[in-house]
User: Fold this.
Amino acid sequence: MAGKANLTGEHSGLAYMVENVTVDHKGKKLAAVKVNIIQGHVNETADEVLKRQNYKPGKVDEAEDFLIRELADGPKEKKTIEKLAEQGGISPYALRTAREKLKIDTKQTGKGKTRKSMWCLP
Assistant:
């Protein structure tokens, strides 16, 4: 991706790909991203590349972004997440697929009538 600094003129950038990975940290599995450089210097911005490729995020991509945003501050009740997803136009299938891809942790709290399913980022 080409960039510009305030004190210099425009210059070329690096083409790269971002990959979702899981890393082990102190015995816990954490979701992370890995940046892979895929070629030498380029002169296009990310917006120009995406426009040229007619890139449109899919429904599962949108659901993944939704889950990351909603769970960034900590666990939320499954029913709340499902309701917000429905209000945002995210289908149950896309939500379930995104949850599986992101390896969202699910935990049960309470017993009987007070039992709740909580979702949180890994």
Q: What stands out?
A: The chain is about 35% helix and 35% strand. The first strand starts at residue 3 and ends at 4.
